[in-house]
């Protein structure tokens, strides 16, 4: 079991900066997810924790020990990658056992440990097979068992579900969550998939361009995004964002006039609202009125989108709601559903 601390971490290669001034305290037993778009520095940060990259500046602590300069094998971590990394000429049993042999763990314990780990990921019946005889999901479970078998202090998982199809991803995701709950091992999990982040994490680290944008529980980052980047990255659909001006006590943009505003807003501002927090009507007396751009039937709900300038705005309506493309509709945005952001910096304005 271990807490992890990153203090003022930077990673540069010549003039390229991968990670800048990154600070993070991860609690013992916590499930932390690094979330962000491609190239934002997630993998680099994780590789520094693993010892596969050296930070250019800053210190990394695992437990009470500063591990800068310590070899990956001496950090008591297990890693799981997108590409499984199984040995093709070894059976499932030998693949899972491999870390125990390498670390010269007492051979009399191997059999029981391999069986315990393989049972946890429900691989018990496949121990004699070779990786080529397994499906993608089964291979990833072998990789998980191989990470578990050592009973490390920390798990590092880099996009472990990316090679699986959508259905398998959902079931393997649940298995990882269940496993981490049973093992109570500090886990850092890297993904660009916000649904994985929201469903797995105790806390999410949202990253962009090498910088930490927000650290919080899934509920915190969903309900109170720190800036427009986080707002537009979290949620499906993401939060609607519309730039406008405050004039005569109203928020105005094309076809938009919103009254009853809080006092402290600057003259130019971005309003944000989630599709499920607003209502849509075929009356034309709401806050934003425009022709329907598209209608998407999802089965449990209907998504109605309109366009204001370049902004595509989406409302989640009842599953029975129907409107035709081109028909005028209005979005009604209750005061409690409104988020406000500084238009220049993108930062949240707390009212
Ligand atoms: N060895 C390297 N030399 C130079 N630049 C690098 C190196 N490794 C990574 N980078 C750069 O650092 C930045 C962060 O990369 P990183 O792989 O951490 O991103 P990521 O968020 O994990 O992306 P992805 O989801 O695509 O894996 C990128 O701009 C990348 O091009």
From TrEMBL:
The keyword RNA-binding does not apply. SMART domains: AAA. SUPFAM superfamilies: MOP-like (SSF50331), P-loop containing nucleoside triphosphate hydrolases (SSF52540). Residues 4-234 form the ABC transporter domain. It comes from the Bacteria. It holds the Pfam family OB_MalK. InterPro entries: AAA+_ATPase, ABC_transporter-like_ATP-bd, ABC_transporter-like_CS, ABC_transpr_MalK-like, ABC_transpr_MalK/UgpC-like, Mo/tungstate-bd_C_term_dom, NA-bd_OB-fold, OB_MalK-like. Keywords: ATP-binding, Nucleotide-binding, Transport. GO terms for molecular function: ATP binding. PROSITE patterns: ABC_TRANSPORTER_1, ABC_TRANSPORTER_2. NCBIfam families: PRK11650.1 (NF008653). This is ABC transporter ATP-binding protein. It comes from Marinomonas phaeophyticola. The lineage of its organism: Bacteria, Pseudomonadati, Pseudomonadota, Gammaproteobacteria, Oceanospirillales.
């Amino acid at each position: 079991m271990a807490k992890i601390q990153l203090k003022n971490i930077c990673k540069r290669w010549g003039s390229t900066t991968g990670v800048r001034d990154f600070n993070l305290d991860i609690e013992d037993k916590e499930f932390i997810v690094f979330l962000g778009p491609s190239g934002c520095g997630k993998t680099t940060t994780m590789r520094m924790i693993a010892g596969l990259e050296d930070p250019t500046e800053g210190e990394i602590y695992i437990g009470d020990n500063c591990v800068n300069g310590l070899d990956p094998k001496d950090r008591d971590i297990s890693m799981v990658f997108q590409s499984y990394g199984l040995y093709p000429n070894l059976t499932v049993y030998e693949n899972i056992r491999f870390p125990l042999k390498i670390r010269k763990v007492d051979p009399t314990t191997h059999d029981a440990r391999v069986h315990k780990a393989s049972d946890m990921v429900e691989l018990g019946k496949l121990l004699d097979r070779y990786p080529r005889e397994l499906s993608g999901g089964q291979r990833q479970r072998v990789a998980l068992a191989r990470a578990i078998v050592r009973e490390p202090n920390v798990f590092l998982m880099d996009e472990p579900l990316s090679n699986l199809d959508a259905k398998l991803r959902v079931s393997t995701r649940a298995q990882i969550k269940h496993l981490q709950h049973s093992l109570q091992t500090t886990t850092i999990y890297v993904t660009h998939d916000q649904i994985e982040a929201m469903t797995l994490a105790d806390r999410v680290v949202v990253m962009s361009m090498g910088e930490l944008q927000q650290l919080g529980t899934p509920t915190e980052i969903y309900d109170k995004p720190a800036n427009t980047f986080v707002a537009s990255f979290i949620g499906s659909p993401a939060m609607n964002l519309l730039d406008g001006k405050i004039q005569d006590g109203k928020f105005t943009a094309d076809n938009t006039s919103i009254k009853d505003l809080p006092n402290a807003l600057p003259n130019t501002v971005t309003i944000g609202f989630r599709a499920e927090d607003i209502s849509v009507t075929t009356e034309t007396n709401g806050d934003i009125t425009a022709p329907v751009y598209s209608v998407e039937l999802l089965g449990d709900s209907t998504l109605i989108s309109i366009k204001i300038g370049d902004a595509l705005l989406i409302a989640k309506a009842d599953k029975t709601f129907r409107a035709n493309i081109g028909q005028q509709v209005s979005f009604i945005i209750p005061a409690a559903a409104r988020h406000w952001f500084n238009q220049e910096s993108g930062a949240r304005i707390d009212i």
